[in-house]
Amino acid sequence: MKGMKYHVRLTETERKRLREITKKGNRPTRQIIRANILLCLDGNGTGRPMAEQEVMTKECGCQVSLVYRVGKHYEQEGIERVLNRKVRQTPPVPPIVTGEVEAKIIALCFGELPAGYGRWTLRFLQAGR
């Protein structure tokens, strides 16, 4: 990671918030590690040269690439992006039952039961397609 080009300069309120996250310990581990990295990168407003950042990775127990990404995300998108995961825009797997299919199932359920049965079963619903 030669020539780290992202510099972290935290405000006093950001430093206070990150210290609370690291001291209380009731947050996800990912958040605590990233808060520690931000605090170390800031160095109380002085910033750290790359040589110190490599030593810092051993202190925080992470890879140099994580330190680089944390610095990059902080500079480009702010502290919220560093601490919290990016929200997915779409689900990982498209839903199997769409609104149209759900409407058909509901219509079947309110229809007549097969002769000799007291309730709908999955087998009856599949046969009703």
Structure in a nutshell:
The protein has 129 residues and is mostly helical.
3D shape: rod-shaped
Taken in chain order, the helices and strands follow as HHHHHHH
Provide the gyration radius in Å.
26 Å
What count of structural domains?
2
Number of helices: 7
Oligomer: single chain
Structure description:
The protein is mostly helical and 129 residues long. It has two domains: 12-83; 96-129, no CATH class. It has helices at 12-24, 29-42, 50-60, 64-77, 79-83, 99-109, 122-127.
Topology:
Layout: H1 12-24, H2 29-42, H3 50-60, H4 64-77, H5 79-83, H6 99-109, H7 122-127
List the defining traits of the structure above.
57% helix, 7 helices, mainly alpha, rod-shaped, 129 residues
